[in-house]
What we know:
Largest sheet: 11 strands, mixed
Structural class: alpha/beta
Shape: globular
Number of strands: 17
Oligomer: single chain
Amino acid sequence: MAVVRFAAAVLARITGLRVNFNDRWEGTVVMMVPCYTESREGLGATLDSMAASNLRGLHGIIVAVCDGRVIGVGSTESCEDALTSMMTLERTTVYSDYTEYYGNYKGLPMYVVAKHNNAGKRDSQIRVFHLINSGRFGRVDYIFMTDADCYFPEDSVYQLCWRLHAEPDTYASCGDIRVADPNNWLSRGQTYEYFLSQFHSRVAESYFATVTCLPGAFVTITTDVITQDLIDLYSAEPNSLHTAQLLKLGEDRYMTSIFMKLFPLRRAVFIPEAVLHTGVPESSTILKSQRRRWCMSAFHNMFDNLFLPDLFLWTRFGLAYDLITTWLQVAFFLLVFYSITRVVLFGTLLDYISVAAGLGFLLMTALTALIYGRWEVVKYLPHFILLTPILYLVIPLSNAWNAGNVKWGKTRQVSSVASSAAPQSEAGGEAGPRGLGEIVDDDEHESTTDGPRNVYEDMSGARVPRPEPLPAHDSVRIHGHPVAAFVERPQGPRRPSQPEIVIKV
């Protein structure tokens, strides 16, 4: 299987479809970024990448969703405060459980949804899907999703959108995620691992069939697949440990699984030329917490998808192979370690063959990196070898021990609940919870609900339905396309520090 994936990577490099940068067409892309505890610097890098994107005729709208009013460790302000201070604010609308900010960022229309309570990334995505389907942004063709600690070159978004435009049967495209500034052995080892997982597994899936895990940090989706059926399935409440693993730990992979169920004849593709840089864990504790979520979600999704009635043959074969290797990766690692020990002491022919197979796998990845011009990946091969005991022994055993744990973990740490300068209602109440709290991690600062909510509490505690979107006549047009009311400037001069405030409860 490894040889076949290596061959697919080479063939994709030789025969893969190349982006036509001279191709221009009319369309709108919503660029979504969910936020939680990121710093002003991290948010600014992501927003700058969006604003600097060369969309070549496409029209971009930035949509940021703040998941609660919290302050991350090392930060002095919440994401809501940081975003609203960086954008040119034009109007603020306060709803029962979230605040909407409208304005622009370096010339691009920008829309911020600041949720008053933490409800998770899945809830943030569903809110944006509802906004798109309700016509809040007018006609939208694509939704580009990234994370708030990432940055990317100016052509990346266009490359992802172009592939969807060039191949109508393709519903999603993702690109090459690289480690930003690897500065210790752990992050350098992950650089090699990221390349291995993408340019062997993901390239082969894209070349022969469809990508089975679209990374939420770097993906573009056509809006014609954002249907109510998708939203309903994605909004489901967990009713067992299995569904909790699907819904709570790996929303990106689960969303891809839903796409595979609803649109079995359409494809998701990987584009090596589209590049994004992201931060990775630099301590073994955070790495273990992150991989627990990734691995448990992957296992449960692969098991679910294996029995889908309409699958590409390669997809079903690949899922079965990955499922088996996931079960046996500890045994494989111990076998290789045992064989290396025997080779050093008194090796037999079988021991030499086992060690040669392991080295051949690593060298195939290194050769693929050379073919794609990624010299730094080869340089970090020794760091990856040092990382293998953690990836293939410590983490799998820890996952098995904590198989029933569906909490988020310590990936993003919170220092306090923000005292955000939220608009006041006429009664003098605050538009959301405020005050300082103790230092907590993500396990202690989870949503109090099992999933996205369709009914919310207003400021008096009464349960009210989700607010309806603004009426259609509040929209204006930019570049010939209807865009939501947040780009509409009020008549007469107004200082950016005095935006319009609307209270809706």
